[in-house]
């Protein structure tokens, strides 16, 4: 089977969050299972672009907003990622450093999708499956099914749409109707949701199959999906949840070159301690206290706004028995609150506001607990990385966190779960973490070994996707 993934992110070319990790790993595992999986994404100007060799594979043109634009497609020469990576370049739109956050993101991603459909319709042999990820690729199923320019050439190709985050839907007004290439206008309803063109809604309506990244999140979308609830209820027959895996080559404490001390489950206690000491000296913390960390985008979904209050209360209430460390960027207000606490809670708390892939690895390795009080968490990869590095996840019982973590109060449990995203729940969970660390050392040691043995690799989920593709071929 031949599959082409269309995505705005793919690690290591460009990553803002978990989408990049997933698209950087899933195709590799699909190839290992004997299929041909490729990825196409925009050609942002990132380090990876400049450090690798590329060949030109296609040049073409399309129209957006009555303007003709030229695009080119290049391919990484050496298959170093374990799959073919294609980049689409469009002058003045995609030739930028960042992935998102520009005023013309709508134009950027619509033209990216037009270019991809145009390129695919010129391929002599077609892929069997076009797998679109999130709203930046959400118009592709409509383009392929209804737009005259593509529907004939791509009629036999099946589409799958995966929702990594239902919070962002990419909607834009009908005043930009001319962004969409010619189609039979009575099909406008396949683009529309609440009087706007909504790429996520359109993909759910037009794709052959729709998935999201955990079974629990699929359920939740029917009750809470930023206005799309009814569509998930209506289309439930073609929707399913497939839990993400992790790339165990990239995330492996035994081989991870970012760590000051590599370790496995036999020497987990010592290995983690060395990495904690490194963090402690870098951030002015106490290596003999439990370290509770948070890594992630500082946004509402992650409940980053309640971290300052929850951390200060925990430090006061438990007399500074635990240390806290934050790595993240996002909402400027939350960033400045978290940064200003560095001075106030010196020796008990510190933060690094920004994005650092190396530091994230050291934190997964050197922390005792990883906090994720998310309000929404479609899957969450951080808890899976934490498990692999013997770090106890402290998570809200929601979405993918619900599906991948079992509270240590239950049989074979290994995590700390909270019911709500609230200051109280975080403070209470911190108390449980402190008790586990100081008073139940053997239990903690057992849990670490147990967690490190859990297999969350892509092996089984990659197969689930293949079965899903098979069902529509
Ligand atoms: P989301 O995709 O919603 O951000 P996930 O848990 O799926 O959440 O994935 C987050 C990914 O981004 C993980 O690989 C995590 O380590 C990484 N990450 C998030 N914030 C940062 C940061 N500030 N520095 C380094 N890595 C980060
Ligand atoms: C999203 C979700 C996250 C998920 C990731 C990869 O960004 O917020 O929960 O793990 O996509 O699927």
Explain this structure to me?
The chain has 473 residues and is an alpha/beta fold. It is built from 17 helices and 18 strands. Strands 3-4-5-2-1-6-7-11-12 form a nine-stranded mixed sheet, with helices on both faces. A six-stranded parallel sheet has the order 15-14-13-16-17-18, with helices on both faces. Strands 8-10-9 form a three-stranded antiparallel sheet, with helices on one face. Helix 1 packs across helix 17 (458-472), helix 9 (268-283) crosses helix 12 (357-366) and helix 10 packs across helix 15. It starts with a strand and ends with a helix. The mean pLDDT is 97. Bound molecules: adenosine-5'-diphosphate and alpha-D-glucopyranose.
The CATH superfamily of the largest domain turns out to be Glycogen Phosphorylase B
Summarize the biggest pleated sheet.
Answer: 9 strands, mixed
Counting structural domains, the number is 2
Structural class based on helices, strands and sheet pairing: alpha/beta
Instruction: Examine the coordinates and then state which fold CATH places here, giving the name of the CATH topology of the largest domain.
Output: Rossmann fold
Number of helices: 17
Count of beta strands: 18
Overall 3D shape: globular
Strand order of the largest sheet: 3-4-5-2-1-6-7-11-12
Strand percentage: 15-25%
Rounded average pLDDT: 97
């Amino acid at each position: 089977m031949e599959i082409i993934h269309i995505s705005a992110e793919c690690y290591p070319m460009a990553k803002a969050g978990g989408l990049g990790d997933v698209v950087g790993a899933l195709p590799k595992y699909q190839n290992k299972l004997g299929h041909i999986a490729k990825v196409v994404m925009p050609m942002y100007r990132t380090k990876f672009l400049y450090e690798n060799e590329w060949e030109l594979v296609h040049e073409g043109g399309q129209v957006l907003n009555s303007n003709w634009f030229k695009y080119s497609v290049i391919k990484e020469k050496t298959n170093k990622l374990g799959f073919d990576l294609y980049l689409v370049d469009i002058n003045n739109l995609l030739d930028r450093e960042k992935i998102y956050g520009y005023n013309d993101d709508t134009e950027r991603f619509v033209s990216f999708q037009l270019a991809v459909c145009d390129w695919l319709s010129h391929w002599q042999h077609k892929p069997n499956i076009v797998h679109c990820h999130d709203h930046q690729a959400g118009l592709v199923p409509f383009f392929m099914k209804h737009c005259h320019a593509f529907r004939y050439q791509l009629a036999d190709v099946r589409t799958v749409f995966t929702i990594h985050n239902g919070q962002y839907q990419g909607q834009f007004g009908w005043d930009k109707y001319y962004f969409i290439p010619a189609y039979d206008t009575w099909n406008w309803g396949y683009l529309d949701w609440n009087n706007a063109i909504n790429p996520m809604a359109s993909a759910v309506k037009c794709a052959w199959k729709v998935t999201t990244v955990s079974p629990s999140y699929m359920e939740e979308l029917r009750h809470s999906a930023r206005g799309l609830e009814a569509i998930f209820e209506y289309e439930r027959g073609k929707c399913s949840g497939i839990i993400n895996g992790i790339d165990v080559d990239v995330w492996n404490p035994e081989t991870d070159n970012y760590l000051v001390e590599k370790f496995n489950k036999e020497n987990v206690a010592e290995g983690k301690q060395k990495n904690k000491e490194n963090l402690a000296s870098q951030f002015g913390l106490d290596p003999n206290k439990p370290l509770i960390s948070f890594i992630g985008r500082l946004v509402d979904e992650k409940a980053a706004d309640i971290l300052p209050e929850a951390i200060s209360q925990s430090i006061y209430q438990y007399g500074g028995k635990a240390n806290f460390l934050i790595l993240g960027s996002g909402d400027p207000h939350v960033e400045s609150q978290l940064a200003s606490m560095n001075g106030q809670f010196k020796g008990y708390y510190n933060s690094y506001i920004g994005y650092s892939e190396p530091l994230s690895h050291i934190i997964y390795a050197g922390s005792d607990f990883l906090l994720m009080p998310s309000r929404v968490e479609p899957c969450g990869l951080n808890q899976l990385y934490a498990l692999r590095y013997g770090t106890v996840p402290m998570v809200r019982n929601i979405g993918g966190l619900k599906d991948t973590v079992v509270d240590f109060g239950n049989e074979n449990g290994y995590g700390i779960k909270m019911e709500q995203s609230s200051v109280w729940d975080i403070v209470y969970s911190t108390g449980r973490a402190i008790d586990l660390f100081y008073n139940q050392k053997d239990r903690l040691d057992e849990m670490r070994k147990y967690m490190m043995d859990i297999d969350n690799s892509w092996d089984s989920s990659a197969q689930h996707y293949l079965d899903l593709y098979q069902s529509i071929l």
